[in-house]
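Dear colleague,

Thank you for sharing your sequence with our group. We've completed the structure prediction you requested, and as agreed, I am returning the results in plain text so they can be pasted directly into your records. Please verify that the sequence below matches your submission; if there's any discrepancy, let me know and we will rerun it promptly.
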Amino acid sequence: MDKEKFYITTAIPYMNAKLHLGQIYEFILADVVARFNRLIGKDIFFLTGADEHGQKINKSAEERGVPPQEYVDEMVKDMKRLLKLYSISNDSYIRTTDKKHEKVVQDVLIKLKDNGDLYKSTYEGEYCVPCETFLIDSQLVDGRCPQCGREVEFVKEENYFFKLSEYKDRLIKHIEINPDFVIPETRKNEVLGVLKLGLKDISVSRTAVKWGVPIPFDSGHYCYV
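Please find the predicted structure tokens below.
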């Protein structure tokens, strides 16, 4: 008889700095869940990894005076040391600089383009480098990022956008007819509330910073995934 499959993943931490206690806490919690499900006979796949691309990492590497790849290699080495120290029993470790990851991202982008889900436009507005988030004026708090409180930068650049707005009704319907798709109930209601307010198309490429996955159909554009 085939074992019941059970998949668990942590968030993959951003490699702009060494890990902190809150991230270790998350790994330990995920490890407890993975170990328990192994004990009761399930076929477990426990994933963690490293998010290595983006402007913030590029900036941290510049401040250190090393190439971005060398910088993230050092951060990943330290992360793996901590995973071993705390006996985290992950089955796989994904890096966003891995070639296999890059290929999957590029394949997905090509499919999205072929399906008509991507379009090119110019973004003009505020950008928070630490949070790597585009913001509109109404989201700012005293001219600063509402999440981290730091100053934002004005940017204007050509991006590819994903037509997220076109999926609002489909997402609402899917969640409503699949009651266990989002749990607990309070979070499901929260997600539905956000969806019903409407979704905005999101930027999926940058041109200002080259440390990312190259967009396969448009040189000069890079994706951070």
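Summary note from our side: DSSP finds six helices and nine strands in the chain.

Kind regards,
the structure core
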